[in-house]
Amino acid sequence: MTISTIISNAAPVSSMRGGRVGEERRGAVAAHETIRDRVSVSGRALALNAADDARKLDVIRERVRRGYYLDGYVTEQVVDSVAREIEAALGR
To answer: Which segments in the chain show pLDDT lower than 50?
Structure first.
């Protein structure tokens, strides 16, 4: 049996459910559109995140000061990483 045989022998969905398919779907979509997700982040969590970000920046600043990023291998790794991020952002 092929797909076209199955499709041509199938009854319309509206006749199988008494013609209310469209109404049910519209109701489900309308209900879905009114639902909103919410998240609450504590002040402590925000402070910890900010402190972690500051620590990471301090590490990067120290590496720049010491010339870490001037090493050819490190520069190549940084460029490869940035290129991957750009490609991911462009959806490639």
So the answer is: 1
